[in-house]
Specification:
Layout lengths: L5 E12 L9 H10 L14 E13 L4 E5 L6 H8 L7 E6 L3 E4 L12 H11 L4 H15 L14 H14 L4 E4 L8 H16 L3 E5 L3 H7 L2 E6 L2 E7 H14 L17 E10 L2 E2 L2 E2 L5 E9 L3 E12 L2 E7 L5 E3 L2 E9 L7 E11 L4 E12 L26
Parallel strand pairs: 3-7, 3-8, 5-6, 6-7, 12-19
Antiparallel strand pairs: 1-2, 1-4, 8-9, 10-11, 10-13, 13-17, 14-15, 14-16, 14-18, 18-19
Helix pairs in contact: 3-4, 4-5, 5-6
């Protein structure tokens, strides 16, 4: 009997930066290179040797059958590359991966879907790719459609689906078909809040059914609730492999100790070239602080550079505790114009609102036409528990909710 569903030994994956990588070429690569150099002409210009980027560097771990394992880390840490290697989307440069059983993966919206085919046809196509018979897919079909809530559009080509519809159907297929291993990336963030809760519940059911789940997410609350074990990736390496509570604590501690610079943080979105976040600082009574006294007002300042002017732009920060989204703060009531150049957005937060503990911070911005930039878990703030001897149960929780109460007897 197999002792592990997934076994990774000394796994390395490198990419070539700024150069042409000829190994493992595809037809697309050949055509693209032909267009770059028409009629077979070659350039005599001497180029510097291409730089190698190691997305994964000597990673080893095992996952037992029926185990639910979370993978966390900042953007660019190697989490998604690991899942792509496990899914056989990309080949490792070195190392070995052993998988035992049928595997389904949901790494990005519509993974494995054909845009010209209908939702119905894609369900059967995905089932066939997983090695399932038509009878097996038919048995699960109604359950998949009901979960995805796309029954009215099941015979419509998926290229006409919204991103939410797309991801609902893709997740439903991956989660309901009979597989032994399920790989899920942060793609669930595309869905609405109700569907995210529904999907997390389904993953819990999948795990209870004895199937193996590997889950990559910035939703630390989901990782804490679903996974008994978590891996912390950083710089292409697995830095910590242990109980979820210990791994999350180490991750948040690292964010807190990183200081105010955002140079190492990773941001996603269409505005990453036009908007560069450089620094985050917390001040209290006009002085920088590393530990905040929650009984006094404080400010969070975000500084950066705007490389072009915007007619309409809004900046925001989001506060999280234990993976739960506590609040989002905007620097202006509505989106306003921003000139090119340096900027500072100051967010002033009143006293006695946030409770003691550690909070992680996300930073983002959005403009017209759906253009945006976002960086999750780019920094962390510690709020002191030294509150003058007040009883712990009097300051429990994440926020101090304004309320009125009286005793009636």
């Amino acid at each position: 009997m197999a002792t592990s569903a997934i076994k990774v030994e000394g796994l390395c994956k490198s990419y070539t930066l700024g150069g042409t990588q000829w190994r493992h070429g595809t037809l697309y690569d050949v055509l693209a290179n032909s267009l770059r150099a028409p009629f077979g002409q070659s350039k005599s210009t001497t180029h510097e040797p291409p730089e190698q980027f190691w997305a994964l560097n000597d990673v080893s771990f095992e996952v037992k059958p029926g185990e639910v394992v979370g993978i966390i880390g900042r953007n660019g840490a190697g989490k998604s590359t690991m899942l792509k290697v496990l899914s056989r989307i990309t080949a490792p440069t070195r190392g070995r991966v052993e998988l035992r059983g049928r595997l389904a993966s949901l790494l990005e919206v519509g993974t494995g879907f054909h845009a010209e085919l209908s939702g119905r046809e894609n369900i059967f196509l995905n089932g066939a790719l997983l090695g399932m018979t038509r009878r097996e897919v038919v048995r699960k079909f109604d359950e998949i459609v009901a979960f995805a809530e796309v029954d009215r559009f099941i015979d419509t080509p998926v290229k006409r689906y919204s991103s939410g519809m797309y991801v609902r159907l893709a997740f439903a297929v991956a989660a309901h078909l009979d597989v032994d291993i399920l790989l899920v990336d942060e793609v669930l963030a595309v869905g609405d809040a109700a569907f995210q809760r529904k999907s997390l519940g389904k993953m819990g059911d999948v795990a209870k059914g004895g199937r193996t789940v590997v889950f990559v997410s910035h939703n630390l609350s989901a990782i804490r609730g679903l996974c008994a074990r978590a891996l912390l990736f950083d710089g292409g390496q697995c830095k910590i492999d242990g109980p979820t509570s210990e791994t999350l604590s180490a991750y948040e501690s690292g964010l807190s100790e990183a200081g105010g610079s955002l140079q190492a943080a990773h941001f996603d979105g269409p505005l990453t070239r036009e908007l560069v976040f450089q620094e985050l600082a917390c001040t209290q009574d006009g002085a920088p602080v590393t530990v905040v006294d929650p009984t006094r007002a404080f400010s969070i300042e975000v500084r950066g550079m705007c490389t072009q002017s915007f007619d309409s732009l809004g900046l925001n920060i989001a506060l999280y505790r234990d993976g739960f989204h506590i609040a989002t703060c905007h620097d202006t009531p509505t989106d306003v114009a921003m000139r090119a150049g340096a900027f500072t957005s100051r967010f002033e937060i009143a006293a006695d609102v946030l409770r003691p503990g550690r909070y992680t911070i996300g930073i983002g911005a959005s403009s017209t036409f759906g253009r945006w930039i976002w960086g999750g878990d780019v920094a962390a703030l510690d709020f002191s528990e030294n509150l003058g001897g007040r009883a712990a149960n009097r300051v429990a929780g994440a926020v101090a909710l304004p309320y009125a109460a009286r005793r009636v007897q």
